[in-house]
Description:
Blueprint: H1 2-9, E1 18-21, H2 23-31, H3 34-38, E2 52-59, E3 63-70, E4 75-79, H4 87-109, E5 120-121, E6 125-126, H5 135-149, E7 156-157, H6 165-175, E8 201-203, E9 210-212, H7 233-238
Parallel strand pairs: 1-2, 4-5, 6-7
Antiparallel strand pairs: 2-3, 3-4, 8-9
Amino acid sequence: MECYIRGILNLKDNAGRLYLLDHYTMGVILHGTREQIARQELKKVTFDLYDGAIGFVNIRNVHWKFVYLHALSNHIYVVDPLQGSNEVEDSRKAAYKFGEYFKMRRNRLGKEDWVSIKWQPGKITHTFQKDATSCGAFVMQMAKMTVKEFPKIPKTFHIKSSQHLRRDMAEEILRGSVSKDDFCSFCGIEDLPTTAVDAVWIQCETCGRWFHTQCLGMPAARIPKKNTPCYCVLCILTN
């Protein structure tokens, strides 16, 4: 999940002002004991260099929620893609937890960043998941929309049907992953195993990514001739 959002952040000009908090640390801050929280000091992070923070929190290993700290307005949002929860109350509890967390950092590290912020609960309207398995995809889309709107606060999260959502997100992750010039965009490896008979490379005419023909299941007879354009599956699907 963090990998997907990191790719989105890398495309945003002012993304350096938005801190991505990993889901483990987020879960400890919101639901951990004092001892557990004390081990998540993030001593190398100076939050005053940021105007906000985003992340995800896992609930009992079965559900995901999106968390957004907007330091410019002192608001915090806990957004649940599953209908029925009290998001304002969840945000109020999160505001208290983060207030205590930053005080802990001041006491242990002498850091004053974000200590003076009086966090207020907020609420962002949004569509809800219609099944029991789409929470992860939904919160990732919420985070994506937040990054695109930043430093503004999204007025609403309108997420379309998840029918093609996972495929579209997988394509985005692949496009923002390994170097397209040095590694196969299918297997992510530079060289094939020594047991491979041939290590033939082909390049997509549209996106410029390289692929091992063996990874594509392409027999020698189907390998395009020199100067013959070739198109990868991702570009064919999106065109």
